[in-house]
UniProtKB/TrEMBL annotation:
It is an enzyme of class 4 (lyase). NCBIfam families: deoC. PANTHER family: DEOXYRIBOSE-PHOSPHATE ALDOLASE. The keyword Cytoplasm applies. It comes from Chitinophaga skermanii. HAMAP family: DeoC_type1 (MF_00114). Catalyzes a reversible aldol reaction between acetaldehyde and D-glyceraldehyde 3-phosphate to generate 2-deoxy-D-ribose 5-phosphate. Pfam families: DeoC. This is Deoxyribose-phosphate aldolase. The gene is deoC. It catalyses: 2-deoxy-D-ribose 5-phosphate = D-glyceraldehyde 3-phosphate + acetaldehyde. Belongs to the DeoC/FbaB aldolase family. DeoC type 1 subfamily. Its main location: cytoplasm. Its EC number is 4.1.2.4.
């Protein structure tokens, strides 16, 4: 398994520095990670750092709580794409999910998805699976699967509970085959990353990516 190609190498802490971003990008290019996921203010410089490599530039929208207005998320998305983001990880409105306001959830994504796809970019929707009921996860998968997002993602990493094998398996069961899954939140070992991939994840978001790759190499 080429675990490196599953990894979104990530730094999203609110105190992120330019040196953090430079280091992240150097590691991502060295290890040929699928993407780097960075805070919105660093998208433009990140595009310069990774250049014409296999590593994509990813950023977040409505992060980390998801309750920004739809108009704010649209503006963030447009700005991110203009500055060079190739993948957008948007946090779903968790208040709407917990309230069962599925019409709002659908409106939110139908306001963002066409912008992303019209520019040939990728949209991942973060549902924060660790704080949702199974039936809420299933309903999210039904809506996002029908609307045609590119990925459904487990977590921001800011909730009490991150990615689990059970959540990924549940999502895989209820998503169309063409919709991918990104597992993130608390992924610190190769063994756990491998379990999540076996359950159906095609991306894993983590900050300890280099250590995970080294663990995988040690087993070969």
């Amino acid at each position: 398994m080429q675990i490196n190609r599953y990894i979104d190498h990530t730094v999203l802490k609110p105190t992120t520095t330019l040196d953090d971003i430079r280091k992240l990008c150097m590691e991502a290019v060295e290890y040929d990670f699928a993407a780097v996921c960075v805070p919105p203010p660093f998208v433009q410089i990140t595009s310069t750092f990774v250049g014409n490599t296999n590593t994509k530039v990813c950023t977040v929208v409505g992060f980390p709580f998801g309750y920004s207005a739809i108009e704010a998320k649209v503006a963030e998305t447009v700005m991110a794409i203009l500055e060079g983001a190739e993948e957008i990880d948007v946090v779903a409105n968790l208040i709407a999910i917990k309230a069962g306001d599925w019409a709002f959830i659908e409106k939110e994504i139908t306001s963002i998805l066409p912008i992303v796809h019209s520019k040939g970019k990728v949209l991942k929707v973060i549902i924060e699976s660790g704080i949702l009921l199974d039936e809420e996860i299933i309903k999210c998968c039904e809506i996002y699967g029908r609307l045609g997002v590119d990925f459904v993602k487990t977590s921001t990493g800011y909730a009490e509970k991150g990615a689990t094998v059970e959540a990924v398996a549940l999502m895989r069961k209820h998503l169309p085959a063409n919709i991918q899954i990104k597992a993130s939140g608390g992924i610190r070992t190769f063994a756990f990353a491998k379990e999540l991939i076996a359950a159906g994840a095609t991306r894993v978001g983590c900050s300890g990516s280099v250590q995970i790759v080294k663990e995988s190499q040690a087993l070969n």
